[in-house]
Amino acid sequence: MIVTQRKTSHRTKNSPSRAGFSLFEILLSLALLAAAMAAISQLMETGLQAGLRNQLRTEGQFLCERKLAELIVDPAAQESTGETAFPDDPGWKWSVAVSDGPRTDLLRLEISVIHYTDEQSPREDMRVILVRLVRIPTDPPEETTTQRSHLMWGGSV
Question: pTM value?
Answer without folding.
Answer: 0.63
